[in-house]
């Protein structure tokens, strides 16, 4: 094992460890890493000596901050297509994780965003700590939640997922558990001990029992206290109606949410809301990933993705110039284009029904 490899693999007991190993880049995923993880899972699935897989991130800052946004930005600016190929394989990996026949344990310590959610939150045993910060931040860079994010957020209680998708807010352990993005809270100082204990496990029941033994009640979250206005304000099917409800709710936190949303890409906001509503009408993660591939491929060709990454990641001026700049300028026809069939370029994970308009 080369300790400079972007993905490290080793076996401890009957647990196959996958470690994302780009700590200076917050373990951001690139295409090679996706291929490494996919290959590791393919081998582990057929290896009778492997009882389960455990995924972690190198360093103490986080499991994974998402995809390699700088590379995607450069590819989009150059009019390339390597990002499209990356997403194709990444989304296939997300589906593999969700259907993996052996326990898939994810330690979601520290920052877990975008693609990091994709390699963790579809697993069987999802562990958060007091350091966890989990988000789908795509609307802030002119993109749309992907890696099965609209599937996960669409399944969150009430309209919590809509709130998180549109605001791009990050949540801690308690709220991640509330939203169904995680299963157990384990204090970070116990992770090393937990990992050693898992090595002695040989069945799914033993893994679950071991994790429960190390788990503690999570620190209190923030969202539960806001459920009333969140569920009321976000139930509308247009971004404009949601903003109007937030502004007129008389709740300071709701008004702040409206201000946060207004700073995001108008196109991304409208496509995201439509994607969430459509995801709820689809019958599988695979169908949702097919839909997300369409929205990602279309977003890749639009100016907001390049501009959003420039403003947030490259220049860091936090002053994106969205095009179009106003919600009123984004028509239903504009949104519909993001869901149009890609023909022979479809991802094709699910051959079943698509959500209707």
Describe this structure in words.
By secondary structure, the protein is an alpha/beta fold. It has one domain: 2-enoyl-CoA Hydratase, Chain A, domain 1 (Alpha-Beta Complex). 45% of the residues lie in helices and 11% in strands. It has 16 helices and 9 strands. The protein has a 6-stranded mixed beta sheet with strand order 1-2-3-5-7-9, sandwiched between helices. It has a 3-stranded parallel beta sheet with strand order 4-6-8. A hairpin with a 2-residue loop joins β1 and β2. α2 crosses α15. It is globular. The mean pLDDT is 96.
Measured as a percent range, the helix fraction is: 40-55%
The span between the termini is: 50 Å
Strand content: 5-15%
Shape: globular
CATH architecture tag = Alpha-Beta Complex
Number of domains: 1
- Please work out how many helical segments DSSP would assign: 16
**SSE arrangement, N to C:** EEHEEHHEEHEEHHHEHHHHHHHHH
Whole-number average pLDDT? 96
Rg: 20 Å
CATH class: Alpha Beta
CATH topology: 2-enoyl-CoA Hydratase, Chain A, domain 1
Largest sheet: 6 strands, mixed
Please identify the structural class as seen in this structure. alpha/beta
User: Uncertain regions: pLDDT < 50 for 5+ in a row?
Assistant: none
The CATH superfamily is identified as 2-enoyl-CoA Hydratase, Chain A, domain 1
Strands ordered across the widest β-sheet: 1-2-3-5-7-9
Q: Please give the number of β-strands.
A: 9
């Amino acid at each position: 094992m080369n300790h400079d490899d972007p993905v490290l693999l080793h076996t401890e007991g009957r647990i196959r460890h996958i470690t994302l190993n780009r700590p200076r880049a917050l373990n951001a995923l690139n295409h090679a890493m996706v291929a490494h993880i996919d290959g590791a899972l393919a081998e582990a699935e057929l290896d009778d000596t492997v009882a389960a897989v455990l995924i972690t991130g190198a360093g103490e800052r986080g499991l994974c901050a998402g995809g390699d946004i700088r590379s995607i930005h450069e590819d989009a600016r150059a009019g390339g297509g390597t990002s499209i190929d990356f997403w194709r394989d990444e989304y296939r990996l997300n589906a593999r994780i969700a259907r993996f026949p052996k326990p898939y344990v994810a330690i979601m310590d520290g920052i877990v965003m975008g693609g990091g959610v994709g390699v963790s939150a579809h697993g069987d045993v999802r562990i958060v700590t007091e350091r966890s910060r989990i988000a789908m931040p795509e609307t802030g860079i002119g993109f749309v939640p992907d890696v099965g994010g609209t599937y996960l957020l669409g399944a969150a209680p009430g309209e919590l997922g809509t709130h998180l998708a549109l605001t791009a807010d990050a949540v801690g352990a308690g709220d991640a558990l509330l939203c169904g993005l995680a299963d157990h809270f384990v204090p970070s100082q116990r992770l090393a001990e937990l990992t050693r204990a898992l090595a002695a496990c040989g069945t799914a029941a033993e893994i679950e029992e071991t994790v429960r033994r190390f788990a503690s009640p999570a620190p209190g979250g923030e969202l539960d206290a806001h459920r009333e206005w969140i569920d009321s304000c976000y139930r509308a099917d247009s971004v404009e109606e949601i903003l109007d409800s937030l502004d007129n709710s008389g709740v300071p936190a709701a008004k702040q949410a409206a201000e946060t949303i207004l700073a995001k890409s108008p196109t991304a906001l409208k496509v995201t809301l439509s994607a969430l509503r459509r995801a709820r009408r689809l019958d599988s993660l695979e169908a949702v990933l097919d839909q997300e591939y369409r929205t990602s491929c279309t977003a890749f060709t639009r100016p907001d993705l390049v501009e959003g990454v420039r403003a947030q990641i490259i220049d860091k001026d936090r002053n994106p110039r969205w095009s179009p700049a106003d919600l009123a300028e984004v028509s239903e026809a504009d949104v519909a284009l993001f869901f149009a069939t890609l023909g022979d370029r479809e991802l094709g994970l699910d051959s079943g029904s698509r959500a209707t308009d």
